[in-house]
């Protein structure tokens, strides 16, 4: 029969009721949390809210990354993860945003030197972006827990959240497994 391409998306809803205490991503680490050293590197626009809010480990209140509206191009934010790792899923949280949320988002990742520079287009020096989550629609005032059917086999240490075309996201959680960053040379795990 040969190889047949599935029409299913590369991800699934990890918590369709939005109420589960544990879900398929519960066993993974939030690599994009400032609590483990994640840093916001650069954002295209922070008109109504700081992009650093994305990596805040606390539940959202009225703080979110919100860009100017009626943007002719997409807005983006680049986050250096707290640790490089393989990716298993995402939590795109728009709670607290009713009418100012992004309508669509996508997520890309790359593996680069920890001190790599990010240019004005959101590209990381010396790295190519890999699509982790294709462009999807998101709802206002909701958590979107999306698990990949199969976690990535390669590790990433930078992610770029893209808002199509603009709007806001309260929190971004990138769930995965910690993997040493091989772009930095030898890694002595005995220390």
Strand coverage percent: 35-45%
Average pLDDT: 86
**How many extended strands?**
11
Report helical residue fraction: under 10%
Poorly predicted regions are 1-6, 187-191
The helix count comes to 0
User: Would you list the SSEs in sequence order as H and E?
Assistant: EEEEEEEEEEE
Main β-sheet description? 9 strands, antiparallel
Secondary structure topology:
Blueprint: E1 11-13, E2 29-30, E3 39-43, E4 65-66, E5 75-93, E6 104-110, E7 130-137, E8 143-148, E9 156-164, E10 168-169, E11 171-178
Antiparallel strand pairs: 1-8, 2-11, 3-5, 4-10, 5-8, 5-9, 5-11, 6-7, 6-9
Explain what the structure shows:
There is one protein chain. Residues 1-6 and 187-191 have low confidence and may be disordered. This protein has strands at residues 11-13, 29-30, 39-43, 65-66, 75-93, 104-110, 130-137, 143-148, 156-164, 168-169, 171-178. The protein is mainly beta and 191 residues long. It has no helices and eleven strands. The strands form two sheets. Strands 1, 2, 3, 5, 6, 7, 8, 9 and 11 form a nine-stranded antiparallel sheet that branches. A two-stranded antiparallel sheet has the order 4-10.
